[in-house]
Specification:
2 helices; two-stranded antiparallel sheet; flat; single chain; alpha+beta
Length: 84
């Protein structure tokens, strides 16, 4: 939570969401997922990229498991533009 608060204080227009597992009532809270979209990346996509989003994901093959998801756009040069 301190990392998210530090990011929020340095970039007010960015969007951050940290979700913990409500089923486990432990301290510190059990991490479930995080979403990060920086203001500069969002503005770059709106001003210079095509209105196409591609979402890709993969399974994490560790003892913890889980998934990793990423959203990618296309810029004017047909290059990938990572969003979140």
């Amino acid at each position: 939570r301190r990392y998210i608060e530090a990011l929020r204080s340095s970039s007010l227009e960015s969007f951050f969401t940290l979700v913990t597992d409500p089923a486990h009532d432990v301290f510190p809270p059990l991490f479930q997922r995080i979403f990060i979209c920086f203001e500069g990346v969002k503005r770059g996509w709106v001003e210079g990229c095509r209105r196409v989003l591609c979402v890709d994901g993969c399974f994490l093959k560790t003892f913890l498991g889980g998934q990793f998801l990423a959203a990618v756009g296309r810029d004017a040069n047909e290059q990938m533009y990572p969003l979140c």
